[in-house]
Every structure is written in C-alpha cells, then in structure tokens.
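Fold this complex.
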Amino acid sequence: MDPEILLDVHDVRRAFAKQGGGELLVLDDVQLKLRDDEIVGLLGRSGSGKSTLLRIISGLSRPSAGTVTYLGHPVDGPARGIAMVFQSFALFPWLTVLENVQLGLEALGLPAKQIRERALSAIDLIGLDGYESAYPRELSGGMRQRVGFARALVVHPNILLMDEPFSALDVLTAENLRTDFLDLWQEGQLPIKGVILVTHNIEEAVLMCDRVLLFSTNPGRVVTEIKIDLPHPRDRQDPAFVSIVDRIYTEMTARHTEQIMQRRERFQGMGISTALPRVSANLIAGLVEAVAAQPYDGKADLPDLTADLQLEIDELFPVAETLQMLRLAELEGGDIKLTHMGKRFAEEDINVRKEIFSRALMSYVPLAAHIRRVLDERANHTAPKSRFLDELEDHMSPEAAEETLRAVIGWGRYGELFSYDDDTAMFSLENPQ
Amino acid sequence: MQFLPTISVKAGRYLPSRWDVLAALIVLGFLILFTSTSDLLVQPFSTLAAKPISLDPSHLPEYAARTALRMLIALGFSLVFTFTYATLAAKSARAGALLIPLLDILQSVPILGFISVTVVFFLSLAPGRILGAELAAVFAIFTSQAWNMAFSFYQSLRTVPAELTEAGQLFGLNAWARFWRIEAPFAMPQLIWNMMMSMSGGWFFVVAAEAVTVGHTTFALPGVGSYIAAAIAERNLSAIYWAIGAMLVVILIYDQLLFRPLVAWADRFRFDQQQSEDPPQSWVLTVVRRSQLLTALVTPFAALMQKTYRLAPPRAPGRLKAVQVISPRAADFLWNGLLVVVTVAALWRIGVFAEKNLSLGEIAQAGALGFITALRVLILIALASVIWVPIGIYVGLRPGLAQIVQPIAQFLAAFPANLLFPLAVSLIVTFELNPDIWLSPLMVLGTQWYILFNVIAGASTLPLELRDVSTNLGIAGWLWWKKVALPGVFPFYVTGAITASGGSWNAAIVAEVASWGSRTLHAHGLGAYIADATVSGNFHRIVLGIAVMSVYVTLINRLFWRRLYWYAERRFRLA
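Structure:
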C-alpha cells in the first residue's frame, strides 16, 4: 500500500431503510483517498450525503457496503486519530473553554499535569488565550468555533474532519477564521497530517483545498475531481481562481440538469413521479425579478448572482431549477437566462403573473395538472390529500412525497389553481369561507 | 390553451356526511351521560346511605362515568379559575404582588386540608341534598388540578412576545379581544400539557375526594374513588383489580376524546412558525373538523364571540401610555392601606385562634412531625433520583423506547396510592416491618414519574452533535455520565424533582396512614397527623397541620429548589 495514503475510502455505499419497505440510497460507490499534507474538499448540495460520508469516515456511522481504511487499518468504530469540527460548534455549555478542550485528553486517560499543559498550549495556538475560564455562551460565534478547533487539535489527530465549519458564522468572522487556519496549516504548526472539508460554499472550497470532489445528489456520488494548484495565500480576484470557480459552477449545474432530464425521460407519460423541491412562489418571483433587473438584464452568471444575492448555492440552485422546469428560464454553462415567458412574468402585475404561473403549472408540472383535473372531475370538487400522497408514495419515499405535495400546494395556491385546507387536509376549488 | 376559470364559489352540500353521523353520536353520548348523572344531584342526602357503594363490577361503568364527569367539571372550574386568577395576576402589578405568593401557598396546602375545612360549608349550600357533597368532591378535585394550570398560564402571559401585543394594539383590539385572539392561544400548548398533569393529580386523590370522613360528617359518593375505599374496607382484592381496570379505561377515553384532540388542535398555536415534523394527530379532531353539522352548530357562537370583540371600543392609540409613566399614587396608597388592614385582621384572627386552641407543645409536636416527613421526602426523592435518572437517560437517548415508556409512566403517575395499600399492609404485617420506613415508598408512588418524564425529555433533546463529539473523542464510562449525560439533563431533572417533591408532601396524607380491612398502619409524620385529625374532626389540629406543612413546603421551595433551579438554568441550559 502507498505509504503516504492516510485514508482510503473504497466503494462506500450507504442506504437507510424507508418507512414501509424499500431503501433510500444516500451514498453510492464513493471512492476517496486522503494523502499526507493535503486538504480535500467535498462539495455538493444538501442531500448529497457529504455529512453522512464524514460520519462514516470518523466511525460514527457504518457504511452499508465498502470499506474505510485509516493508516492501513479498517475503521469499524470511533477511530482515534480522526477528530472532527462541527458546523454548530457542538461545545458543552456547562464546561468552560479549558474544560471543553481538556475533555478529549481526559478520555485518553492522560495524567492531569499533561492534560493541562497540552490543553493550554492548544488554546494558545488557536488564539484563545485569556478565555480559558469563560463559558461558551459568553463567547461570540467565531470564538466558539475556535474552541471547536482547539478541542479537535488537542488530541493530536492525524486527520481533521470539518463539517461546514464556517457556515454558521458571519462573512467577516468566517474569513478571519479561515485565514488563521490556513496560516497555521501552511506554517506546519498544526499537529495534523490531512484535512477533509465538507462545504457547499464553492469559493471556500477553492480557497482552502488542494483537491475538490464534486458530489451529485440522490444518491451522493463523486462525479468529478478538480485539482487546485494555486499557491497560498490565494486571491479571489486572481483570474485563475475565478476560472476554477466558474468551472465548478458549470459542472454542478450541468450535472444536475442532465440528471433531471434523464429522470423526466425515464418517466415520460407518468409525469407526476418527479420529486419537486419545496421552493416558495415568492422566491421564484424574486429570482425572476433579480435576473430581469440591471445589471443582468435577463441573463446572469450564477457565481455573480450567488454573491450578489448573498445566497448559498444550496438555496439558489433549487430556485433556478424550478424556473427552468416552469420554462421561465434556461440554465446553461453556469448561466441563467430568462425565457420570453420569464421576461413577461417580470414585467407584469400580480394578476397576470398568477395567470402565467398557473399556465406554466398546468403545462409543465404534471402533478399540479393532475390535481386540478381530479378536482374538476369530482362532483363536489374536493379531494383528500391522502389520495395524492398515496399515488406519490408509489414512486418516492414518504418524506419526499410530503415535500413534493407541499411544494405543489404552495405553487397551486399562488397560481390560484386550487385551494387547500390544512385543518381537514382537503384540496378543493373553493375560496375559503 | 384557455385560461383556467377562477376558483368557484362554494358548491352547496346538504346531505350529512359520515363525519356528521360520528360527530352526532359523540355529542349525543355526552348529553345522555350528563343528564343521567346529574339527576342524582337533586336527590335527598339520605339516598346515599340507602344505596351504599356496591363492589359488584357491573356497577363500575356507572361509577367510572360519574368520576369522569366530576373530573371534567372540576377541570372546567380550574380553567375558569386559571383564566381569571392568572390573568389578573399577570395584568396588574399590584394584584400580582399578592396573588402569586398566595398561589404558591395554596399549592403547598394538602388537598385533604381543603376538604376538611370546606366540607361543612359545601354541605350547607344545599342542605339535605347530594348536591352539597358533590360540590365538595368537585372542589377537592379542583384543588388538585387548578394551581399548576394557573401558574403555567401566568408564566405564558408574562412571556407573550411584545410584537404580538403591539400588533394587537395597532389593529385596535380591545383587552377582551386581545386576550382571546393573542394571549390565550399563545398560552394554549403549555396549558394543555398542564391540564394533562392536573388530571393525573386528580386521579391520585380520587379516593380522598369521593369518600370523605371529617369528624361526624361521612359520605361516599358513587364513583371509582369510593369503590376503591369500599374495596379496601372489605378486603376485596378482586374489586381492587376491577378498579384499576376501570381507571385505565377512563384514562384512555379521556386521552382519546379530550387530550389528544386538544394537543392536535393546539399544535397550530405553537409560536415557532416552523411546521412540525410530525404534527400530532387525533381522529376525534378530524371528525369535528369534517362534520358540517358541528361546524353549523359552532358558527353562531363564533359569530357571537366576534361581536363581543367590538363591544368595548379600544383605546385610541394616541392616548396610550403617555400618562401612565408615574403610577397613580392615590390608588397605590389605597391598595397598600387595604393590604395592611387585611393583614392586621388576619393576624388578629390567627392570634385569637392560636391563643384559644393551641399550646406551644402542640406546635412543637407538629413541627417535629413535619421534620420527619421532610426527611422522608428528601430521602425518597434522592432514592427515586438515583433510580430514575440513569434509566431516564437511557430511555431518552432511544426515541423508540421513549415512545413506549412515556404513556406507561403517565398512567402510573395517575395511580392512586390507595390501590397499593393491600400489598403494602400485607407485606408490612407479614414480615413485621417498621411502618415508619416501609410505608414511605407510597409517598413517591405517583410523584417519582415526574422525575422520569423530565429526564427522558431532557435526554431526548440532547443535540446529536454533542453525542457525536463525545463518541468522536472516545468519552465513555463514568467520564461520559459526569461530563455529558448528567449535566445535559440537569435542568430537566430539577424541574421534575421540584414537582415530585411538592407532590410527595401532598401524598404524605394518603401514604402515612394505610389500611387494609380492619388493619390500619400509622407512620409518624405530618401527613398522618393531618389525616388523623381529619377523621376525628379535630379542627384546630387540622389547621395547625396545614399551616406547618405550608411553612415547610414554602421554605424548602424558596431556600433549596428555587435556587437550584436558577443555578441549573444559568449553568446547564442548552442555549
């Protein structure tokens, strides 16, 4: 075996049992190697199983199939030498900073004097001097995450796993913490050999990683790997940096669009079985307006748009794809472009918008058209939610069915295609009394 | 494609649906139950003696129905009390300063104390009729239900988000409308939870409330409580089992017909606007919502209620507040003066009473007995904690198990101590055990479950990340208990222990004296003191016992539990 390989994830697959039989595949056929001195980024949207993979690597969860090998030994339980930093910091609120940091060392059963010395030096390294006796609630978010880092580093792990460590912080604090971490890493001051970073922030991945693995959704698979050879410290304005960011955006939208198109073709004729993202009509209208407005004038570069609207890709992509599904916009090569209908939608007042929207629903969202048709056909123009839920559950998990139906209810209400009473769980064509 | 027609107006539906049929059945059933049980109220008192409680199980359905109805009525009174008392306390700073400590004291007064002091008064309200006895019983159940409901409502009213109140003012809602549209809905989920706890409390004291002996006044109202009392007096073990079964059925029916629909209904009032992952369901609520008949019945009342919102014009927004920065001195002066007069009068009455009836020795005796009971409560709560905290943590970390354990514990919390008398007395007599020690477990019989409930709730809210961190860092064994699990549930544990401790004092009255047939066992303690004084009708001892118990409970709450609670909130609460 290659001596410099710290971690080898081979053919990992993870499925969860679904209610009422069947299984939900979250990760499929995942390969990943982490070498000495390397930061590897896992980039994908929510639902791509990145965090599940991280839990499998750390031994908190077991794969359904495949192996994880750490320094030549299989991981089959919480592994020593693999430490983790959490998005929500996960500090114990009843322990002081020092006690939080010492906890991992106490678990190792080290002598008290050594525990104290190592904890203090970790606190020192990560810039928490003076805060030893503070409780987490007294600290700002950035300081809390520093405690999270100190607690992970103090046990001198070989591998550091980071699960979106900066995404709960405000922009400035996140940047500050990222830079500090990279400086320590570059100077070789950290007692770690390799890092795996889970993120859905493309710029963050390009800023920090030596390699980035792109994940697809449902199930999560590694679709492509992008090497980033830029020297540190990296500059966001650097054309090489920008071009890598652009490339990742293109990859991510292209892959997803492809996936959706395939799925649609596969179910041609049945139509209602496509799971729909729960995107509010307001967001849809908002994005159309944003793209129609200056400086984009109907066509926008997705990275620019994400930065401009201060959205994560996780938030932007589902909306953009809904626009594409409704034929209000097209996605191509990392760009979003309004269609003729989309432009009209942007210009008109609320009533015409609703009309356009309801037509689009009838034409391009088979489930919405299906519900409307059923209500039209029934004598009393009502139908229980369970009727459609059962139908959907033939094709998808109960959770996805619920989400899909909720999405359609929201859109149907906006387009005044039908109404829905949550108390009685009934669809109808009536206005509420 | 042609543009779709806009949404049509309501199409008429005249035929009753199957929901209507079901709804009508439920309503009709309640009406019949109500009339058939209430006709007894006006009958003369002597019929009670003429028709003693029968241990034949065929009477149990009737008894169970009567007990259930009594509890429902008491619950209704508790709600009225809650809505008025707690609202007054929350709205008026002057009233609140008196009412909240008063509620604290009322909570510490044992339920038997209320019965023995008030039963003569209630009987005199409807001389010679059963109504008086029924009123006394309902009042007794009321006293085991009302206080915590009022406390919860008061807390909720104090924490209504300012933006909701302000929105109400901007829309020009008057105080009456604000109460029903904003404050009561906001408090509803918490209140319903407390109603369920109150119901358990009512069951625990059901024997004491229905089979009353105060001095020469003795009556046993037809009901499950009297049935249990009679079964104990006659040493009829199979009747005890029947009573347990009947209780279980009534509790289940209450759960299905009342509490589950309420919980499902109140889910809409939760203030975090997230849709809950798994919203509570209830078939009764579905029936009620889908039935056109009930909807038609309710609509006029809703409309009437709407009208009342407009009866009193709201204050014009311009006139709000500005003048109220300085509180009117004259009113303050009057109020304080009134308080001083009432206090002096009360002191004088107490002084006269004590001077006439009590000796210093007697007070010292009651105090010493109170100390014994205090010791007993302390030890038992400690014991219950040692047992239930680890179990609660274990269960709480396993959601599947928690779902099974919760309802069982809920039933056990309602289990009256009297039902275990046969077992306790037989064991103590057979093995010649010391009743001072071995009767004590009965005190925590119903209350220990509050520790379990709360610890389960605490453990199940321990964030997954914290559990992941501990696993990742390899924290196990004692270190895990010490640094992770115990601190994590501590605030929840304290809440449960406070409830358990208060309840155990109250339970001392039914737990320190146990009888099975002719065999009666006494433990030394304040509970037995009050129970004995009640049976012998010794009023100055009853009053002294209640007073001493109130002092103990209030002092222990103030000096120990409240401090512990704030410490736990500050140090251990997950933000």
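Residues 358-575 of chain B form a domain with the MetI-like fold fold (CATH 1.10.3720.10).
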